[in-house]
Specification:
Blueprint (H helix, E strand, L loop, with lengths): L2 H28 L3 H27 L4 H27 L1 H24 L14 H22 L2 H19 L4
Helix pairs in contact: 1-2, 1-6, 2-3, 3-4, 4-5, 5-6
Length: 177
Amino acid sequence: MNILHRLGITALVSAIEDAGLVIWLAMLHASPVFAGAAVAALTLLTFLTTEHLISQRDAVGKLTVKSVLRVLGFTAIEVVNWAVWLALIAVNPVLAAGYFLGSFFIEHQITYNVKKGLPFLQFYDISPGGSARKRVIVETVSELIGAALWVTLSPAVGVTALVIGSSIEHFIASEKV
């Protein structure tokens, strides 16, 4: 894949995801009651679904009903992961980080599987030298660092960290295996 194409896809999907996350968090802060949280979650689901469908189409060339349903499945998992992680930060930041690493590793592995046409829940690495597993780990750690800095630093610096973390995640995810 052409490096300029990869960079363009990375910028596009990162911008969509980051905008969705920033809007989601702003909505939660504006209306933390259950109804507000539900609308915020649906908003995040919409942004993440858009981002994932673009990534899936870029990876495989076309979308099928099966691939769209699988994308909706792992996107729903990601929305839950973000919500639980955010709730856990207030309880115990170390527990929240552990949850993030485990849950997003699983979601990223499922995303990889869907792109490759593998079984949804295949967690063994069939790539040469375990390269897929290593990439999924780096994706997850870069997203955690960006997300953790996003919610702990000032808004401008935090969003910058989020953008950098998600850009690294999406650039690695766009690599062909």
